[in-house]
Specification:
This is DUF4262 domain-containing protein. Pfam families: DUF4262. By secondary structure, the protein is of the alpha+beta class. It has one domain. Helices cover about 35% and strands about 25% of the residues. The chain has five helices and six strands; from the N terminus they run H-E-E-H-E-H-E-E-H-H-E. It has a six-stranded mixed β-sheet, with helices on both faces. The longest helix has 16 residues. The chain is globular.
Length: about 130
C-alpha cells in the first residue's frame, strides 16, 4: 500500500470519506468525488462536476455530514441549501461511467458494488441540464 492509499483509508476512518479532485482534460470538465461514504454509511458517494475543487470539496463534506446526521438525500428531490441560492437535485450515476470516473471507488470496494449520486444544478438563468 502506498502513501496515497494510506491517506485515503485514514481520511475515511477519521472523517468519513476521502475526496478526490480531477482537473479538467481535453473537452472534459473538472470533477470531484468522494470515496468511503458508501463504505462507512451504506449511502451513496457523491460526484460534483464543473465546480472549483474547493467548492466541490465543501459540498461533498456538507453532503457527508448531513447523511451522518440522519438526513435522507433522495434522487430527483430538490434541495435549496447545498449551493448558495440555487436549487439542486441529485441523480444516480450509471455503472457504465464507473470505469472512466471512479477508479478509486472501484479500488476501495474491489469492484462495482457501490452507489454514486451526481449533484445537478441549473445555470444562473435557471435552465436545468
Amino acid at each position: 500500500m502506498d502513501e496515497q492509499d494510506k491517506k485515503a483509508l485514514d481520511d475515511i476512518e477519521q472523517y468519513g470519506c476521502h475526496v478526490l479532485s480531477i482537473m479538467e482534460g481535453e473537452g472534459e470538465p473538472c470533477f470531484s468525488y468522494s470515496i468511503g461514504i458508501n463504505k462507512k454509511q451504506g449511502k451513496p458517494d457523491l460526484v460534483v462536476v464543473g465546480l472549483k475543487s474547493e467548492l466541490a470539496h465543501s459540498i461533498i463534506n456538507n453532503y457527508k455530514d448531513r447523511l451522518q446526521e440522519g438526513e435522507l438525500i433522495e434522487p430527483g428531490k430538490f434541495y435549496s441549501d447545498f449551493l448558495g441560492g440555487f436549487d439542486v437535485c441529485f441523480d444516480k450515476v450509471s455503472l457504465k461511467h464507473y470505469d472512466e470516473y471512479f477508479g478509486w471507488g472501484k479500488w476501495l470496494h474491489d469492484g462495482y458494488e457501490f452507489d454514486v449520486l451526481q449533484l445537478i444544478w441549473p445555470t444562473t438563468e435557471g435552465v436545468w441540464p
